[in-house]
């Protein structure tokens, strides 16, 4: 089902390309099932018909922009994407003059896993109906309040200034006056554990790490062409997956991002071992906010 925002987005992207304002337009296309989308670059006005905007447009588009640096490109941004893009601009990784930014009145993205858990079977369709999501399976249709299915990062979104974008589609949600306390709830829960218990928590999770570097690859703010922390595939320490090598990689990577991570949680989303990597950077974010 095409939403009003999706129709508006396709129309604006079509016009921007047709009028030569941009050479490319970056958004999302539908993936292999109703709960998957993927970054998509429209290069002609006709290709904008493939753009989608729905409740599972989760991937951060800011990192994809770097692949097209030097070209005039339009992009549809959620608040979390915009926060990351603002950091990339501060770090001189992109030129603001070559970007046309369309902010989307995002109501928060739903967690695909939560949608799957709420469905009585394989999900075959997903639609928005006011504050609810309508989930279709082969045998049933269920409605769930969108707010109960949100990603954690969306439930504690810090918003973005409305003057950051060139234009807005939908209603721009007001940024909360302060960072929601719930944003650091998981970090605070860990802090209540004894040091030995915290060590056990991270030892258990990081024991599953295969050093695949998916977290590094997806991170929009990991943009070094050569990383001192990355080991070659056939390196003995990568093959051995020594605990100290794994601990050192994740801690050093977190400290490298300490003053720039925006909490987009892409690292946790793509981790094939479901390691809560976002908690490391969220702890540093909490410490930074208290300085």
UniProtKB/TrEMBL annotation:
Keywords for the protein's UniProt record, in alphabetical order: Iron, Iron-sulfur, Metal-binding
Domain 4Fe-4S ferredoxin-type: 252-282
Highest taxon of source: Bacteria
Tagged with keyword Iron: yes
Protein name in the entry: 4Fe-4S dicluster domain-containing protein
Top-level taxonomy: Bacteria, Bacillati, Chloroflexota, Chloroflexia, Chloroflexales
């Amino acid at each position: 089902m095409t939403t009003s925002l999706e129709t508006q987005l396709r129309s604006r992207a079509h016009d921007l390309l047709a009028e030569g304002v941009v050479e490319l337009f970056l958004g999302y296309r539908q993936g292999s099932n109703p709960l998957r989308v993927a970054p998509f670059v429209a290069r002609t006005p006709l290709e904008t018909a493939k753009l989608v905007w729905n409740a599972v447009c989760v991937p951060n588009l800011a990192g994809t922009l770097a692949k097209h640096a030097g070209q005039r490109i339009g992009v549809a941004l959620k608040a979390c994407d915009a926060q990351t893009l603002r950091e990339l601009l501060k770090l001189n990784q992109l030129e603001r003059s070559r970007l046309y930014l369309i902010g989307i009145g995002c109501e928060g993205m739903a967690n695909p896993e939560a949608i799957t858990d709420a469905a009585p079977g394989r999900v075959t369709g997903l639609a928005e109906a006011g504050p609810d999501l309508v989930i279709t399976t082969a045998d049933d249709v269920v409605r769930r309040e969108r707010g109960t299915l949100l990603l954690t990062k969306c439930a504690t979104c810090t918003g973005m200034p409305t003057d950051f974008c060139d234009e807005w589609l939908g209603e721009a949600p007001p940024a909360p006056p302060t960072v929601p306390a719930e944003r650091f709830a998981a970090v605070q829960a860990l802090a209540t554990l004894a040091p030995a218990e915290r060590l056990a928590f991270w030892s258990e999770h990081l024991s599953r790490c295969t050093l695949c570097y998916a977290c590094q690859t997806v991170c929009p703010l990991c943009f070094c062409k050569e990383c001192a922390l990355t080991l070659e595939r056939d390196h003995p320490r990568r093959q051995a997956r020594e605990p100290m090598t794994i601990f050192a990689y994740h801690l050093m990577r977190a400290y490298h991002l300490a003053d720039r991570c925006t909490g987009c949680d892409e690292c946790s989303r793509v981790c094939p071992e479901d390691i809560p990597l976002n908690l490391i950077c969220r702890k540093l974010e909490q410490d930074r906010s208290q300085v």
